Amino acid sequence: ACSATTPEDDKQARLKKLQEEQTALTKEIQKLESEIAAENPDSLVAVRTKDVGISELKVQNFDHYVQTQGHIESDNNVLVSAEMMGVVTRVHVTEGQSVSRGQVLAEIDNSIISRNIESMEAQLELATSVYERQKNLWDQKIGTEVQFLQAKTNKESLEKQLASLREQKDKTRIKSPISGTVDAITVKVGENIAPGMPAVRVVNTSDLKIQAPVSEAYVTDIKKGDKVIVNISELNKDVEAKVTFVGRTIDRLSRTFNVEVALPQNPDLRPNMTATVRIVFRSVPEAVVVPINIVQEINGEKVIYVAEKKGRHMVATRKVITIDGVYGNLAQVKGVGAGDKIITVGYQGLNDGDYIKI
Length: 358
Prior knowledge:
This protein is of the alpha+beta class. The chain has helices at about 5-40, 110-140, 145-170, and strands at about 50, 55, 60-75, 75-80, 85-90, 100, 105-110, 175, 180-185, 190-195, 200-205, 210-215, 225-230, 235-245, 255-260, 275-290, 295-300, 300-310, 315-325, 330-335, 340-345, 355.
């Protein structure tokens, strides 16, 4: 059998041959351009360039920090409970009302104690009268010492019992232990209440703090007085504060330790709000910082490209760097310095020595 060659087959073969020749010529042209440029940097021979964008490096302050989530707490956030069992007879405050320390918030039925006090006061009045008479007689050497001592003991015993009853009556008044604002009332008139049962929540938001867990990896870095940047999403702003307490124990489950941050007064802050906390544990005043996205890894090395002048041309030079810290979208690096023109746009696909156009 035999086959015939068609005109279309001839065209395909010629096209393939011409493409191979074009590829070979392009490689030869690039090679000659590079050799000529290397031998004579000032040559006016046109070379192929790649468009890039650059940024000149400047030293700047760079903060090393750890970021975590925390929540706002108040030391003056108190659930006031009853000290005596009984029926609530009066509630003196309303939610949102400002109260002072020692102010009576509610009262428990104390009618039985009040009657006992009245009875005890009458007994004490009689005992006091008897004591005074016995004392006058004893001062005149009339009567026996036993009678005088019995009258004195009876009077003092009744005084102590009366003081105890008055103290019990005072405990039927639920008082605020702090100055602040009534946040919630959980009792109603007519309800039974027992010791330890919460009655009223009083909150003072003048002294708020953030409590946040930090990884044990930073246990030697975080110290009292460190600068803190607090971001509260509800307020949509950053607040600067200081670390006021660093925990000395590590939680076995979470492998974290607690850090507390005192907050400046702000009427918009509320207990139990969540916050993003950045604790600055080291600041470098003159650091070389580059955008982390321009750092590439080539053959196991961290590299960036720098624009340098070579004769009349600009070339991309590969710089091997080391990274001292990455925070946000920036990295503190070594291997480049102030004044270097780093390539920030068009760095993908660059090779060491490529000609560039800014």
